[in-house]
Write a structure and sequence with these properties.
It is built from three helices and four strands, in the order βαββααβ. With about 100 residues, it is of the alpha+beta class. A four-stranded antiparallel β-sheet has the order 2-3-1-4. Strand 2 and strand 3 (about 50-60) form a beta hairpin. The longest helix is centred in the N-terminal third of the chain and has 14 residues, at about 20-30. The chain is globular and about 45 Å long. It starts with a strand and ends in a 10-residue tail after the last strand.
């Protein structure tokens, strides 16, 4: 079965600095995300313009959807969500069909 990949882009609310977000992001990952069925990995990055991108890998689309259903309103995610300008939040899911590592070369 192919992984489901989620790509999330967002910006922080006015006045929220990246270091505050980084700390809350790590708390949310350990308190919430790492305990979900089907979660494989997640990376978070930011560019100089302040846009943040998150890439998540799930075992299935059902696992990805289940995580979103539990995300909003969860006490372990509320402080994280409070930092995000939700008008800029965009999530898109993809079905992975190819992956490569250095060992493949």
């Amino acid at each position: 079965m192919a992984d489901t990949v989620e790509i999330v882009t967002m910006r922080l609310k006015e006045g929220v600095d990246l270091d505050t977000f980084k700390a809350e992001n790590a708390k949310m990952e350990h308190a919430f995300l790492g305990h979900l069925h089907g979660f494989k990995n997640r990376s978070t990055s930011a560019n100089a313009d302040g846009q943040i991108v998150v890439v998540l890998h799930w075992e299935s689309a059902a696992d990805a959807q289940s995580s979103m259903d539990k995300f909003v309103g969860n006490p372990d995610t509320s402080p994280f969500l409070d930092l995000i300008d939700m008008d800029t939040f965009v999530m898109t899911r993809y079905e992975e069909f190819d992956t490569m590592t250095l060992e493949d070369v």
